[in-house]
Amino acid sequence: MSKRSGQLRLGAFLYPTGHHIAAWRHPDAQADAGLNFRHYVELAKAAEAAKFDLVFLADGVGTRGDSVDFLSRTAHSYVAQFEPITLLSALAAVTERIGLVGTASTSFNEPYHIARKFASLDHISGGRAGWNLVTSSNEHEAKNFNRDKHFDHAERYERAAEFAEVTAGLWDSWDDDAFVRDKAQGRFFDPDRRHVLDHKGRFFQVKGPLNVARSPQGHPVVVQAGSSEAGRELAARTAEVIFTAQQTLEDAVNFYADVKGRLEKYGRHPDDLKIMPGVFPIVGRSESEATEKFEELQSLIDPKVGLALVSGLTGGFDLSGYPLDGPIPDLPETNASKSRQLLTIELARRENLTIRQLYLRIAGARGHWQLVGTAEQIVDELEERFVNYGADGFNVMPPVLPNGLKDFAELVLPELRRRGLFRDEYTGRTLRENLGLRRPQNRYVADGK
Amino acid sequence: MSKRSGQLRLGAFLYPTGHHIAAWRHPDAQADAGLNFRHYVELAKAAEAAKFDLVFLADGVGTRGDSVDFLSRTAHSYVAQFEPITLLSALAAVTERIGLVGTASTSFNEPYHIARKFASLDHISGGRAGWNLVTSSNEHEAKNFNRDKHFDHAERYERAAEFAEVTAGLWDSWDDDAFVRDKAQGRFFDPDRRHVLDHKGRFFQVKGPLNVARSPQGHPVVVQAGSSEAGRELAARTAEVIFTAQQTLEDAVNFYADVKGRLEKYGRHPDDLKIMPGVFPIVGRSESEATEKFEELQSLIDPKVGLALVSGLTGGFDLSGYPLDGPIPDLPETNASKSRQLLTIELARRENLTIRQLYLRIAGARGHWQLVGTAEQIVDELEERFVNYGADGFNVMPPVLPNGLKDFAELVLPELRRRGLFRDEYTGRTLRENLGLRRPQNRYVADGK
Question: Are B416 and B335 in the same domain?
């Protein structure tokens, strides 16, 4: 395959105080970021000024860290923060062009609510909404929703697939031109352009129609993160953006080819899905400045937090009985995130890391791709992945916020632009247009009509 | 009881094109209001400039009118509009002082989601969130949520009571000062100030804690609308504002005394609950101008829409076989809104109305209290209800928007202010403070601590 040209896409992944596990302890960090609306307004406006495609918010329906050692939790900062749909809706009112992508789980939600809220956000924002469709894999989340255990892996992906199908169907409840609003004739809508889904499946029975008009983007952009076999297949069928984690160029290129290769059987074109791996950049004006920044953050990690993180990423098993300076023990296959478990254990084996070295190695990016260096060094890496078809763009995970985003905009973006790899101005009106995704046709409208 | 002094509270009930059933057909109406964000920004800012306590949004989880005659539905305008939580969150970002109250049903939601979203909105808005807790009584809503039928009246109120209890418990998950964010010690929160609800009830099992810090108001303000026996009891136990519908002073005074009298057994003070009936005002600079405005709107009602409305308000039975110019037939007790059925039938009997006369009589206010006249005449009526303990304030339902709200602000408010009945400026920082409601103490904090 020849090397590609064109421009890459960028997301700004806004984790409250930043993505480094000890970010909140950094002197620059806004420690109350999780519930500081002004902080998010500043970040969203900065990302928009820098022409990022989108801001991205993670989510969980419980207090994170409940599944691991209690003591370490008091050092965790991601336990109480804004709910993404409310936060993105508020940010919609103070931004104009940037996409607004939020996570919502299919495990403990109803498709009617989710379809409705993201369609509503799409209208409020003038076509900038995106939904990161995830499944929930923590028991402490299940316990907030009438269940003792979470759904097992296969069932939760089956539910997710049906959930996505219902949601897409509800988004087509009305033709784009269904609302005629003819005051003289007293005809608010055309009944022939209203469609009743009447879905009856294994997990859901949903009649419809949705009580929101078809939204500016037709459908809000659907994002997914799963990289397991079931996750890849679900993404090939329903996702338009994949937010993923690969450590090496080889893994990234293989993943890219694998997922794009699955699209055809669902009648989709490779361009209908953008692959945007997470990247955790620590950028300095010199290499030593970057390394110092990184070391400063690493020194702030409480060993208990590091251990809890490794436990979480390797499947949720209690590792506190194992020596910190010994290897990761053999672990059974998890029923939580299988792909995350595999990636983490592979990394430890490949680099021959002890538990302590592993947490120091992954704490920053929490399993994502970590780059420490000058703007030029970082852009070399991003470019390499992009031109070799390892990525269509990246979801940028600043180590500390707000400064990490500012550093990326001031140091990395000029270098990307110098090489022609990133836009100077928004060209699209909607998130879909900026990402280069087509607007989906309404399923009820005959081809060619 | 001596006549009361003091000031009344006002809500601005924002129904997309206005509350009159034919509002959208009026030349002044913004026909696409339901999905026009700028329209709502304008309304919220106008209501805030006028010092209303709050804006109020209704909701349903289906396309309204699906339970009645299909043909009439094409003339209905409340079928596809913003979802309230997304809309209020967006409005939070462009307003500073006004309360933001949205409806969400307990019938097809999970308490963890609702507690979280309203707590998040309370943080985003700096303490201005309110939740109008309702139960869902339409089958077309149930069919969007895996059910063939909705819950029956008693079960749905039992579920609502438990839902409210869980939500309140989740809002107390963290003490106000739980987040110490001690960077040097690496201590983000104090584990002794974190509380696990561990609710196990008939309808819900919810472990907690909530993943949002305790919000500025402690709890978002809880609003309710039910006026049936079960609804009154639920309100006495859990509501802080009641949005109700009484046609006469006598009914209003009786309702007020009845509900306030139920508070003591729940350890509550009469001031802990504000009763704010809906009022549908058509105000003119002269009485004849007001009457002309009203007649213009009445002339826009399609008889099929009128009949469908009467069917809906009297319990959802099909009345299309009865002569429009004959009386309302005897109807069985509904399993939908019992109080709404009773109020509507009583009105028809009291005023000896035919079906046509009834729809003309109630179409405007959809069962609420309708006032047509000059500012002075309207304020006479409002004052009479207020000083005689028939209301603590009113939820204003403008007939057509945006002009109906503007008329109220420009004509009625100056007269209310001249009589000392309404504020010139906001005095409180939060919705709770403006309404005169105390901030609830955290249930886990010992008295006097």
Answer: no
